[in-house]
Hints:
Distance between the termini: 95 Å
Largest sheet: none
Structural class: mainly alpha
Radius of gyration: 34 Å
Helix content: 40-55%
Strand content: under 5%
Number of strands: 0
Amino acid sequence: MKVLLFVLIPILAVSAYAAWVWARNREPSSVESGVDAFRREMTALSPDAAPVQRRPERAPEGGGGAPRQAPRRPSSGDGPGGPAGGPPADRR
Length: 92
């Protein structure tokens, strides 16, 4: 009899916990909850809910705006004969 209780008590505890988790996470099935879910989806897809642009629009070529930067040139150590560029230069 004690062996049966030793097995039955954990089974009942696990079953009770599984029922509680199922009841907590189940999807509502009423008509009202379906209408609310549909409204949330339509709100998410509406053009008014579009994300705000993070980058500003590009200014026209003739207009003002920030000055353009010159392209970066490699520093003295990063050229073709330097550490990042190919074989070391022959320095005699």
